[in-house]
Amino acid sequence: MIKVSNLCVAFDKPVLENVNIEFPDEGTYFISAPSGRGKTTFFNALAGFAEYSGNIEITGKICYLFQEDRLLDWYSAEKNIKLTAESERAADYYIKAFGIDEFLSKKPEELSGGMKRRCALARCFAHGGDIFLLDEPFRGLDRNNTEKVVSETEKLKGLKIIITHSEEEISLLNAKKAELFNT
Known about the structure:
Layout: E1 2-10, E2 14-23, E3 27-31, H1 39-46, E4 53-58, E5 62-65, H2 77-82, H3 88-97, H4 113-127, E6 131-135, H5 143-155, E7 159-163, H6 167-173, E8 176-177
Parallel strand pairs: 3-7, 3-8, 5-6, 6-7
Antiparallel strand pairs: 1-2, 1-4
C-alpha cells in the first residue's frame, strides 16, 4: 500500500507539487505524461532517493527497476542477476523466463541494449518485493521479449506501478491509470 499526501519535490524549480494519491496492496497501474513532468522523480521519492516535503506511507518491500539498466560492469550477467536475488531459485527462474541462459558469462559491455534490459528485469523480479516500481520496463525490447516480460509482470504478486509512454504497453498490461498529472 502506498499513500502520498501533499508531496512536493523541487530541484532548481518545483518538479512535483502537492501530489496526493493512494495505491492499494495489489494491482497494476501506469503513469504516463510528457518527458520532464516528474514521473521518475515520483518513483525516486517513493524509494527514498529524492528529498521531498509532504508525507509518504508505504507498507511492504519496494523493488525498483530504474530507467537505466544499472548493471555492474565488472560482473557477468549471471552475477548481476543473482547479486540481489531473493533466492537462487528465483534468479534461475527469471534467467530462463527472459532467455538469458546463453549469455550468463558475458559482461554488460558484451550485451545488446535489449539483453541488458532483460538482465535488469530479471534482477529486479528475482529480488522480489510487495511493490514493483518499473520505470520504462520495455525500453529496447522487441515484441517477443516485451510479451515475455508482460507475462511475467502479470504473475507478480503485489502492487505494480509502471512508467510508460506506450499505449500498446498499457493495453498489454491491462493497467489502470494513476492520475498524478493533469495532461
